[in-house]
Design brief:
Length: about 150
C-alpha cells in the first residue's frame, strides 16, 4: 500500500550492508480484516487520525480484499501475510508489530511460520499491492536523498 522504499532505498541499504526496520507494516490497520467489508463506524479512518478516510478508496479496498484472498491461499490471515511479506526480504532486519492485545501478538508472531513466497504469489501481491499513493510520511521521506543517506551510514 505504501512502497516508497523499494525503488532505491532497499538497494542502497543492500550496497551498504545494512538492514532496515519496518514500521506500519499493516498500513495503519488497512492490512487487517477490519476493512474487508468496508469502513466500520468505529474505524481509525473515521476518527480523523493518521489514516484518512480518503485513503480507503474503492481501489484500495479492492486491493485489500485481493491481498486477503492471497493470504487465505497461503493458509494465513491477512496480517500474517503482510508481516511475512515484509520479513521475506533479508534487508528487513525487524518489523515493529505494535500489538495491543495478547491475541494480536500471537497472531502476528505466527507470520514467521510461513515466510516463503512462490514467484507466482509475489507477482500476484505486486499486482494487487501497487503503491496506492498512501505515504503518510511523504514530507520526511522525500527530503531524504540517497547520497545524504549514504553519508550518514558511511
Amino acid at each position: 500500500m505504501n512502497r516508497w522504499i523499494e525503488p532505491e532505498l532497499l538497494a542502497t541499504l543492500d550496497a551498504l550492508g545494512t538492514g532496515c526496520i519496518t514500521f506500519s507494516r499493516l498500513a495503519q490497520g488497512m492490512l487487517t480484516s477490519k476493512y474487508l467489508g468496508g469502513i466500520p463506524a468505529d474505524a481509525r479512518a473515521n476518527r480523523g487520525g493518521s489514516l484518512a478516510q480518503n485513503a480507503l478508496s474503492d481501489q484500495t479496498l479492492a486491493a485489500i480484499r485481493t491481498l486477503n484472498d492471497i493470504a487465505g491461499q497461503r493458509g494465513q490471515a491477512l496480517t500474517q501475510k503482510a508481516i511475512a511479506w515484509v520479513l521475506r526480504d533479508t534487508r528487513m532486519t525487524s518489523a515493529l508489530i505494535g500489538a495491543r492485545t495478547v491475541e494480536q501478538l500471537d497472531d502476528f508472531l505466527d507470520a514467521v511460520n510461513n515466510l516463503k513466497f512462490s514467484q507466482e504469489k509475489l507477482a500476484s501481491i505486486d499486482r494487487a499491492g501497487e503503491d496506492g499513493g498512501i505515504n503518510l510520511w511523504t514530507g520526511s521521506s522525500e527530503n531524504v536523498t540517497l547520497p545524504s543517506l549514504q553519508g550518514v551510514l558511511a
